[in-house]
Amino acid sequence: MKRTLFLFLSALCLILCATSCSSTRRSRVSFHSLDAETFGRFIQQDDVYVVDVRTPEEHAAGAIEGTDENLDVRSANFFKEFKRLPQDKTIALYCKGGGRSKQVAGVLAGNGYRVVELSVGYDGWVKHHAEQPKK
Fold this sequence. Notes:
The chain is of the alpha/beta class. It has one domain: Rhodanese-like domain (Oxidized Rhodanese, domain 1, 3-Layer(aba) Sandwich). The chain has seven helices and five strands; from the N terminus they run H-H-E-H-E-H-E-H-E-H-E-H. Strands 1-5-4-2-3 form a five-stranded parallel beta sheet. Helix 1 crosses helix 6. 25% of the residues are buried.
């Protein structure tokens, strides 16, 4: 597990360095962080593909309704797997607290994907929806 995490973090650093070394490339690498309310409206669109980047165990404990895929960012296969994501849709990412999804958003944006991410993560999503008045 530690070796897998080390390999993942090393690969992530290499990709982030490669995408940020060119000033012209850096200016095109962007994604948007959305609050829970805005993210909820955004993922209702047909051209959005929702990806949970938490572990399978975290995903099994609860996920945002309509999630299209669980793609574990900590998996040794992550860099092979993310390439199968649809490039004709905007990728909407979330994780537990917002950290992992921001990292993945940068990698995907650097590889030509249109990306948004949930700034508060799944925990913030749950809290936001618990605080909303019942309809």
